[in-house]
């Protein structure tokens, strides 16, 4: 009996500590912003914050079901303010007037939106010309950003329905696309329409395409703001373990590659997700795994298998790598 009461007491204390940790994310973010003299306002669940925005001459009224924070951008971004909310599991959602732009469990990612003070890493094959062409000029653009900046903007993956991505994308005139779009979108759609087409890895391409389309379906239905796995950059926070993780995920024996150190700029959207859910779904096909992935849930407590999907621009920051990009001959 006493042991049982002790267990319940211990569990209650653990839940209490967890809730305090969750609550402290908004408070911790407030402390970090205050240290930088960055103006912000904390709002309680169910209550509104009214702020006069001098640039537009309008009064901003913001409320939320949970505790939240309104952060003035002070001209650092194109929007006058961002709103940061948190759910009961400690997931932070960053929004501005047009919708959500970031979802993460880490306040460092939120601060990075303003200050670009975090280093992220990205894997690139050395035989790909377009990434190195952009890195040579000092900026790596995601397909969505690049296509939107063109004089005659072209369609992106986000403009097509799941049916079109499955069956018709190979017939479309696309702008800049990712290798995943080409492999698991364009090539897979061509193989579906042409079962006679010979390729040594047909089954592998169609299997991976089916998985990506399952994830894309849920993204479009419930997380339409989030970057697509078919289009966005795959990033990780910079650590030696994550460098090994990237090489393990994307490295191939006969292709040279490089892990590039980058900072984010011109953010369009970003989400932190645990890639173990993708591996698990590939084996068990449990649809809850897709939901867990897009809701930024850890695969296990204390998970270290996080990746970021990112749409926007990236700037190289390692001096040696920058010099390498400048000196590398370009075929474009």
Topology readout:
Blueprint: H1 2-35, E1 40-43, E2 48-53, E3 58-63, E4 68-72, E5 81-86, E6 92-96, E7 99-104, H2 107-115, E8 120-125, H3 129-136, E9 140-141, H4 143-149, H5 162-167, H6 179-193, H7 202-222, E10 233-237, H8 240-250, E11 257-274, H9 276-284, H10 287-294, E12 306-316, H11 319-327
Parallel strand pairs: 7-11
Antiparallel strand pairs: 1-4, 2-3, 4-5, 5-6, 6-7, 8-10, 8-11, 9-12, 10-12, 11-12
Helix pairs in contact: 1-2, 3-11, 6-7, 9-10
Detailed description of the structure:
With 332 residues, the chain is α+β, with helices and mostly antiparallel strands. The chain has a domain at 1-115. Helix content is 41%, strand content 24%. It has 11 helices and 12 strands. It has helices at residues 2-35, 107-115, 129-136, 143-149, 162-167, 179-193, 202-222, 240-250, 276-284, 287-294, 319-327, and strands at residues 40-43, 48-53, 58-63, 68-72, 81-86, 92-96, 99-104, 120-125, 140-141, 233-237, 257-274, 306-316. The strands form 2 sheets. Strands 1, 4, 5, 6, 7, 8, 9, 10, 11 and 12 form a 10-stranded mixed β-sheet that branches. It has a two-stranded antiparallel sheet with strand order 2-3. The longest helix is centred in the N-terminal third of the chain and has 34 residues, at 2-35. It starts with a helix and ends in a 5-residue tail after the last helix. The model is unreliable at 1-22 (pLDDT under 50).
End-to-end CA span: 75 Å
Helix content: 40-55%
Strand residue content: 15-25%
Tally the helices: what do you get?
Answer: 11
């Amino acid at each position: 009996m006493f042991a049982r009461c002790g267990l319940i007491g211990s569990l209650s204390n653990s839940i209490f500590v967890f809730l305090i940790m969750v609550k402290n994310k908004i408070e911790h973010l407030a402390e970090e912003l205050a240290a930088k003299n960055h103006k912000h306002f904390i709002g309680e669940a169910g209550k509104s914050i009214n702020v006069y925005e001098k640039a537009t001459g309008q009064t901003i009224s913001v409320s939320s079901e949970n505790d939240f924070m309104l952060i003035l951008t002070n001209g650092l971004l194109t929007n006058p303010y961002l709103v940061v909310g948190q759910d009961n599991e400690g997931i932070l959602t960053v929004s501005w007037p047009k919708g959500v732009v970031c979802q993460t469990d880490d306040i460092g990612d939120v601060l990075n939106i303003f200050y670009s003070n975090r280093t992220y890493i990205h894997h690139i094959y050395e035989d790909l010309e377009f990434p190195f062409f952009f890195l040579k000029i000092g900026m790596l653009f995601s397909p969505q950003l690049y296509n939107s900046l063109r004089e005659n903007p072209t369609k992106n993956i986000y403009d097509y329905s799941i049916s079109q991505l499955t069956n018709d994308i190979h017939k479309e005139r696309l702008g800049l696309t990712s290798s995943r779009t080409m492999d698991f979108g364009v090539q897979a759609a061509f193989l579906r329409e042409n079962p006679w087409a010979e390729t040594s890895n047909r089954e592998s391409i169609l299997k991976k395409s089916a998985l990506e389309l399952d994830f894309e379906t849920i993204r479009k239905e419930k997380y339409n703001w989030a970057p697509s796995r078919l289009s966005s950059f795959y990033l990780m926070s910079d650590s030696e373990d994550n460098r090994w993780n990237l090489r393990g995920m994307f490295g191939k024996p006969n292709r040279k590659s490089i892990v590039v150190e980058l900072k984010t700029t011109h953010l369009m959207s970003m989400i932190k997700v645990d890639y173990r859910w993708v591996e698990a779904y590939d084996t068990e096909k449990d649809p809850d795994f897709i939901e867990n992935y897009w809701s930024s849930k850890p695969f296990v407590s204390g998970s270290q298998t996080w990746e970021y999907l990112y749409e926007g621009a990236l700037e190289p920051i390692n001096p040696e790598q920058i010099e390498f990009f400048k000196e590398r001959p370009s075929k474009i």
